[in-house]
Design goal:
Radius of gyration of chain A: 19 Å
Order of helices and strands of chain B: EHHEHHEHEEHEHHEHEHHH
Strand content of chain A: under 5%
Number of strands of chain B: 8
Largest interface: A-B, 47 and 73 residues
Number of helices of chain A: 9
Largest sheet of chain B: 5 strands, parallel
Number of helices of chain B: 12
Largest sheet of chain A: none
Strand content of chain B: 5-15%
Oligomer: heterodimer
Helix content of chain B: 55-70%
Chain lengths: 188, 223
């Protein structure tokens, strides 16, 4: 893992442990945004996974209805413990161990009571699409971001279409008149 | 033979808006072939067929391929092109990978067969071809960091794509509308302005990179 990426992820995860203990969804969301710059440049699985994880946790902690689940408190405690373990592995420069902990967090999130498990799966899928959209917003193509996050281009386009990305001024290269003229010429 | 090359994004916009049926009439009017490379066919059919979501759209695209409305070209060797495009921009000492193999394969096919146009709804590839420094501007604006451009690689890419014209599904559908190819699709009695508005917003909301300003301009032009 590149040193800069390690430093950045470490800072994010230290914040995440605190945020998870407080069930602070807003802080987790902001931590997710912080990893997206590295994810855009290095496109490494560590930054991508952490970004998706932070976003998914923010969504889970942000929905009050999850509190009703019997195992919710235990679920949150284990999450925070595992995030703490991930910090330890990064501090020890144990990349393989860190990767294993990330996998364990995902396993933990999907090994809870059935209904919560369904929610978690859904939240993770949406988190992947949302992060893919953010990468695309940063200038990475739809195809590349779909590959990186393991989502389908169909799903990603549906999400991107509902954002303001198409209205960024850098995206307009020809006027409507000019491009329509090209199209009309092709068919006449 | 004249041809138009489609990337996956433009076909997806048409499929998710149930507008694939217009391609038959458009192809006849065009008098040439509508082509996709093998990598794009995989993205459009094989990948979505493996899950429930968008399986129907994948089947609809597959039917177009079966019927010859979309011709699949065999894979092109694009390793060098892909590597060089993805080394044009770098930040903090790392090259930024901006496009994937399918996108580059479609571009290479368009150049190789001298396509009359490349149909692409995706923003990054369109910008790379038409005004690559805008990609740098987006990257810098979002990353809050200096992005270095390899001028040699950029020049060689610009030489490669020189003269290639780009249109989107939006302009294709404007032509389809003008040529009366949407009569079976859109309710009768709708005003021109409403129909154009519905078409363009349908495409935009399902991922075609067309700005609100461009939509308004096209609506005025089509009146």
């Amino acid at each position: 893992m590149e040193e800069r990426v390690r430093r950045d992820i470490l800072e994010v995860l230290i914040g995440a442990v605190r945020a998870a203990r407080r069930e602070d969804a807003r802080a987790l969301k902001s931590l997710s945004d912080r990893t997206i710059h590295n994810a855009s440049i290095h496109q490494d699985q560590y930054s991508l996974s952490v970004s998706v994880l932070m976003y998914a946790l923010a969504k889970l902690y942000g929905r009050e209805r999850y509190v009703q689940f019997k195992l919710w408190v235990k679920f949150c405690d284990t999450c925070a413990d595992l995030l703490g373990l991930a910090v330890k592995k990064l501090e020890d420069r144990d990349d393989a161990g860190f990767e294993e902990v990330l996998k364990n967090i995902l396993r933990h999130l999907t090994r809870t009571e059935k209904k919560l498990r369904e929610y978690v799966k859904d939240v993770f899928q949406k988190a992947k699409v949302s992060k893919a959209s953010r990468l695309h917003e940063h200038g990475i193509s739809l195809g590349r971001t779909a590959d990186l996050l393991g989502v389908s281009e169909f799903e990603l386009m549906e999400y991107v279409g509902k954002t303001y990305i198409a209205d960024m001024p850098e995206g307009v290269t020809l006027s409507g008149r000019e491009r329509l003229k090209i199209a009309r010429k092709l068919f006449r | 033979m004249r041809s138009l090359v489609f990337d996956s994004s433009s076909v997806i916009s048409l499929a998710t808006n149930d507008l694939l049926g217009t391609l038959k009439g458009l192809k006849k009017l065009f008098g040439g072939g509508f082509c996709i490379p093998a990598a794009v066919a995989r993205e459009l059919v094989d990948v979505p067929l493996s899950s429930h979501r968008f399986k129907l759209e994948a089947m609809m695209v597959s039917k177009l391929i079966e019927g010859g409305e979309l011709e699949v070209h065999s894979s092109l060797e694009v390793g060098n092109l892909l590597a060089s495009v993805n080394r044009i921009f770098s930040c903090r000492g790392a090259s930024i990978v901006v496009v994937n193999k399918g996108e580059v394969e479609a571009l290479a096919l368009a150049v190789k067969i001298g396509a009359a146009a490349y149909v692409v709804d995706e923003r990054t590839m369109r910008l790379l071809v038409e005004d690559p420094l805008r990609v740098r501007r987006i990257l810098e604006g979002k990353l809050h960091a200096k992005v270095i451009v390899d001028k040699t690689l950029l020049k060689s890419f610009q030489d490669f794509v020189r003269g290639l014209k780009i249109i989107r599904s939006a302009e294709l559908m404007m032509v389809a509308f003008e040529e009366g190819l949407l009569k079976e699709v859109v309710m009768s009695g709708a005003s021109r302005r409403d129909t154009v508005d519905a078409l363009l917003w349908g495409l935009r909301l399902r991922g075609c990179s067309i700005s609100t300003g461009e939509i308004e301009e096209l609506k005025r032009l089509m009146e």
